[in-house]
Amino acid sequence: MRSVVLISAAFGAAVLLCSACGGSEDLRSQLEAELPTTSSEGGIIYSEEGDGPKYADMYFEARNRWPDLTADQWAQAATHMVDGGTWNEATVFMVPTTTSAPETTAAPAPTEAPTTTAPATTTTEAWTSEESYDICLVTTSAGRKDKALNEETWASLEWGRGMNANFRAGGRPEYPEWRSGYVEGWEGSDGSEEIALFVDAGCDAIVTVGAGMAAATEAAAGRHPDVDFIGVDQAHDMSLPNLAGVPFGEDRAGFLAGALAASVTSSRTVAVVLDAEDLMSGDYTAGFANGVAHVDAAVEVVSVTADADGGAAAAREAMDAGADVVFAAGARSNVDALLEVTAEPGVLCIGVGGDQWYTVSDARPCLVSSARKAPHWMGMGEGVSPFISITNMSFGEFAGIKGRVFLSGNRAGMVILAPYHDHKDAVPRDVRDMLEALAKSLLIGDLLACVREDCP
User: How far apart are CA 279 and CA 243, in angstroms?
Assistant: First the structure.
């Protein structure tokens, strides 16, 4: 089921409000009619130190540790850690909430006119306004809480909203309020319908996720020059002042997976399982081979192509060829390949897209890491991710901040390796440091994956 959720930061306080973060109620009719929405009265106050990457790192670590809890609780744990606490201490209060959901009032029958008096628990104010900066996300049908690209994109927007609230409370009350909303696309949607809803609602910036929405995002940007459009995991062919793309190169993701595989193999043979008729699989595969060679050119690379339902057989073929590390790069064959590797003692597997530790939990016995697209990534010396930079500049231009202009064009997004979880001991510290440095070098162009670029 699709859901639309609208969230706004509380005025004048550094809080993160997530009353609807976990909801699944379909609010599409409210969006279309621009009816009132409600928000929580509670919130988590960020510590002053929470403004930097350390707070964000703690927030996402809390989300990984307690994926079934709420964004408010993740923020509470992050604030506790920034203030000098420990994870063991945080465990005490990181428990499922027992607070019941607020009661809702049934909508009037279609033949009845809506009442003109709003209930005491709602606001009659429209959720977008000319004064607030309203940024709206169209996710794929996998949903906002997919533990992959949709969720990480939404978390980046929520991080921006929290930072905005900090600034407003800490001496910049003239900054406009940052409000966030999202809609989950139908299965197979190209995004056109969802984008149109948000344009009509008055969103100042619209973010879409996935290559399948690239064409609709480009077309909407051409029709609506006063709205900023940001395509996550999209590289646009056209150039418009209000259109930005953040492609996450599959070649770079494959390169990191290959470098990891070459670093942990014992048999000196590693493998990649790719999908037939999948263009992205080709980039993953070529990048993987180049990453292996970058670390150790003597390691053999086996490449096996799988049909849609042939992931297990392909993974078995790879292991029969001697591979003790298998990169499951195919979008359709990925899960079956991971599970087949899990059944083979002593063989490691590498996931793709998001951190598959959470999405394919049965593969944990072999899952050493995943090549992950990370829109929220922030590095201490390298600044914030291109996606966060683009949204910040969009906000800054809306707010009239001197020197802030929307960053149009395509900017490569950050690709990293997910945490090693229970397999951390299989990846020595010096190898982890090397892989982190490779990811940063690939982002800034000091190192090339040599798939889309001509390399010597």
Answer: 24
Residue ranges of domains in the chain: 4-97+127-246, 250-374+415-444
Q: Is 441 left (phi over 0), alpha (psi -120 to 50) or beta?
A: alpha
Beta strands, E only, 385-425: 409-410, 415-417
User: What are the residues whose beta carbons fall under 8 Å from the beta carbon of 198, sequence distance 6 or more?
Assistant: 136, 138, 181, 183, 206
Helix 149-169 / helix 53-65 crossing angle, nearest 10 deg? 140
Residue 85 per-residue DSSP state: -
- The per-residue pLDDT for 38 is 26
Q: Cβ of 76: how many Cβ atoms within 10 Å?
A: 21
Kindly report, residue by residue over 256-309, the tens digit of the pLDDT.
999 999 999 999 999 999 988 776 777 899 999 999 999 999 999 999 999 878
Give the ranges where 118-274 is alpha helix by DSSP (H).
149-169, 192-201, 214-223, 250-264
The structure tokens listed for 180 are: 């966030």
Question: In whole angstroms, what is the distance from residue 244 CA to residue 231 CA?
Answer: 6
Question: If you ran DSSP here, which 8-state letter would residue 305 be given?
Answer: E
Q: Is the dihedral of CA 356, 361, 363, 366 positive or negative?
A: positive
Q: Which fold has domain 250-374+415-444?
A: Rossmann fold (3.40.50)
pTM: 0.71
Tens of pLDDT along 7-66? 433 322 222 222 233 333 333 444 434 322 222 222 222 223 333 335 656 666 777 777
* Separation between Cα atoms, residue 133 and residue 22, nearest integer Å: 23
CATH code of the region 4-97+127-246: 3.40.50.2300
Write the CB contacts of 106 (distance below 8 Å, at least 6 apart in sequence): none
| Whole-Å CA distances, 26 to 12, 152, 216, 285 | 30, 21, 23, 40
Rounded CA separation 420/424 (Å): 5
User: Helix 279-295 crosses helix 250-264 at what angle (to 10 degrees)?
Assistant: 40
